[in-house]
Amino acid sequence: MKKIKSIILIGMPGAGKSTLGVLLAKELALDFIDTDVLIQAREGKTLQEIIADSDYLNLRAIEGEVIATAQLPRHVVSTGGSAVYSAEGMANLREQGTVVFLQCSADELRRRIHNYESRGIAKAPEQSFEDLFAERQALYRKYADITLSCDGLDLQQALDELLQRLQG
Ligand SMILES: Nc1ncnc2c1ncn2[C@@H]1O[C@H](COP(=O)(O)OP(=O)(O)O)[C@@H](O)[C@H]1O
Ligand SMILES: O=C(O)C1=C[C@@H](OP(=O)(O)O)[C@@H](O)[C@H](O)C1
Ligand SMILES: [Mg+2]
Fold first, then answer.
1. Is 18 in the pocket of ligand 2 (CB under 6 A)?
2. 86 DSSP 8-state letter
3. Which of 82, 132, 135, 140 has most ligand 2 atoms within 8 Å of its beta carbon, as the pocket-test mutant?
4. Residue 10 pLDDT more than 70?
5. Does ligand 1 come within 6 angstroms of the Cβ of 15?
6. Statement: residue 2 has pLDDT above 50
7. What interhelical angle do 56-69 and 87-95 show, nearest 10?
8. What is the CATH class of 6-163?
């Protein structure tokens, strides 16, 4: 079998990592995993429950452990938006493939997602969405092998563009 590396999707909540990841895996005949699912299965709780029972830093710590130890050959890996807070986790994922940053403007994210307050984002309660957005951009850029601008693209267009970039 041809040695195909994995593809790791990073970006803000609402950027399309989970939605696009499944479509990409199907297109490339790769396996698919959403690391949010790995976390929930390991803990036996939803992400929102983990935050409610402890705090957002605990969720980030659990996420860091999960992505630092995951072995995911020939996968499309959809991460959670906070994965980039774990240097060890990102180093492990990067060793396994190409990291793609799905870049969306704050306005586009707000148009797509209406439940930012109840979505279980791993941030301090007092931190605004805009502040979190700004803080994370540098981290996403730091780890990205490929950056895909997703503003104004529908799912099919984003998928086509991504396939082109991966092949090019
Ligand atoms: N171009 C696009 N790419 C990805 N998702 C899109 C796009 N346009 C609209 N959406 C919608 O935005 C949402 C993205 O959510 P999701 O895939 O859960 O993102 P993430 O996993 O990055 O948080 C979905 O409801 C999806 O249908
Ligand atoms: O950005 C974040 O802080 C988070 C994003 C979520 O995943 P998505 O990015 O897939 O929404 C999930 O991991 C968790 O609720 C925390
Ligand atoms: Mg997701």
1. yes
2. -
3. 82
4. yes
5. yes
6. no
7. 30
8. alpha beta
pTM (two decimals): 0.97
Give the 3-state secondary structure percentages of the chain, helix then strand then coil, rounded to 5: 55, 15, 35
Distance CA 47, CA 59 (A): 7
Q: Which two tokens stand for residue 35?
A: 């690391």
Domain borders along the chain are 6-163
Give the residue-averaged pLDDT of 137-162: 97
pLDDT tens track for 51-91: 999 999 999 999 999 999 999 999 999 999 999 999 999 99
Averaged confidence pLDDT in the chain? 94
For residue 122, give the nearest of 77, 41, 59 by alpha carbon.
59
How far is the first Cα of the chain from the last one, in angstroms, to the nearest whole number? 22
Map tokens 């981290």 to a residue: 139
Closest CA to 96 of 59, 71, 78, 122: 71
